[in-house]
Amino acid sequence: MNAVLAQAVPAAECEPVPAIAVVLLGTGVVGGAFLKLLNTPAAASLRLVGAANSRRQQTEPVKLAERNLREQLKSTGAQRDDAALLAALDASGAAIKVIVDATASAELAARHAEWLAHGYHVVTANKSLGGGELPGWRTLQAALANGARYGDSATVGAGLPVLSTLRRLRQCGDALLTLEGVFSGSLSYLFNSYDGSRPFSVLLREARERGYTEPDPRADLSGEDVARKLLIIARNAGFALGWDEVQVEGLVPESLRALGTEAFLDRLEELDEPLAARHAEAKARGNVLRFLARLNQRGRARVGLSEVPANHPAARLYGTDNQFALTTTRYHTQPLVIQGPGAGPEVTAQALLGDVLALG
Ligand SMILES: NC(=O)C1=CN([C@@H]2O[C@H](COP(=O)(O)OP(=O)(O)OC[C@H]3O[C@@H](n4cnc5c(N)ncnc54)[C@H](OP(=O)(O)O)[C@@H]3O)[C@@H](O)[C@H]2O)C=CC1
Ligand SMILES: N[C@@H](CC=O)C(=O)O
């Protein structure tokens, strides 16, 4: 009798209701690392009910459980359709339904507020909404009013405790006065490593292979990714800054700006000469190059390449280190400094998992 019943009931209905149901958007560098974490004991309370790349998606439990899901999605699965992924979340019966955005898609980010308004929680590595145009940020804040939560730890410092610290300080009545530091893991890696002995383009390819850069590394080199992080921090600190209020000095020459990603990657060597010249000039003055972000007390923001002396705090970074120096009304004699690896698939995926688990 039991065997007959088991055959008659669809597999999904037989599964116990999970505490937290998750849909993963993006199975690239970060999404792939997140999928690995889902197979660890730390994620035992989570059930993956859907996963998608830009073209295909999967909602069948058996297929989702396969170790090579990421590879499978490259050639098999249903056509992309957000509605089917949301339906899988609803059908899970879980009290906590989470959409994890591990893409860099502005189109998907533009839907975060709508998902939150419908009661789904959103956990994101995608900075396009929080660090995008100001009206998008305001829509996000309005959507959060109904109790759904937005996990954005991965968007700044790849999960270093920057936003959580800032929120805690604000809760206690403290206020950010100034902010300064190195907010890009890839640019930190590049300028911490670059001594002129190997071309900049070689180091950039290395950073890309290690999963430190954005899908299109021009998003890093142009300063756009750093500006997004600065905006996310500033807005969370109460500065309603727009894109036009950040002065950005990028590293991508005019000749490489309009190319497609692949064509740009074929011409990375064109970055070598200008950067070698800037490095040599800085070195002649006893300085080093660092890609810095700054927000001053009047809300003036700037990101760009700077020469700093060897005893500057940013000159003493290693690998992908980020550094966030926060001066506040209560940390005013010396800044509160948060420092550590600020890019990479594992730490970023862990930040996503941490935000999902915090919903439980
Ligand atoms: N790398 C890092 O250290 C950090 C990255 N981040 C952020 O993480 C995000 C992802 O970066 P990364 O993993 O390196 O990028 P990848 O390019 O490796 O992966 C992006 C993934 O998103 C998928 N995708 C694009 N559009 C859609 C869509 N509409 N629906 C579903 N999936 C889509 C891509 O699909 P397809 O495979 O079909 O192209 C791909 O699987 C970015 O926003 C980045 O800023 C944040 C902190 C640190
Ligand atoms: N490309 C980014 C990754 C994290 O946000 C960086 O280099 O910091």
Automatic annotation (TrEMBL):
Pathway stated in the Swiss-Prot or TrEMBL entry: Amino-acid biosynthesis; L-methionine biosynthesis via de novo pathway; L-homoserine from L-aspartate: step 3/3; Amino-acid biosynthesis; L-threonine biosynthesis; L-threonine from L-aspartate: step 3/5
Range of residues in the leader sequence: none
Domain of life: Bacteria
Reaction(s) catalysed (UniProt annotation): L-homoserine + NADP(+) = L-aspartate 4-semialdehyde + NADPH + H(+); L-homoserine + NAD(+) = L-aspartate 4-semialdehyde + NADH + H(+)
InterPro entries linked to this entry: Asp/hSer_DH_NAD-bd, Bifunc_Aspkin/hSer_DH, HDH_cat, HDH_CS, HDH_short, NAD(P)-bd_dom_sf
PROSITE patterns: HOMOSER_DHGENASE
Location of the Homoserine dehydrogenase catalytic domain: 161-357
Cofactors (names): a metal cation
Protein name (database record): Homoserine dehydrogenase
Species in which this protein is naturally found: Dyella agri
Lineage per the UniProt record: Bacteria, Pseudomonadati, Pseudomonadota, Gammaproteobacteria, Lysobacterales
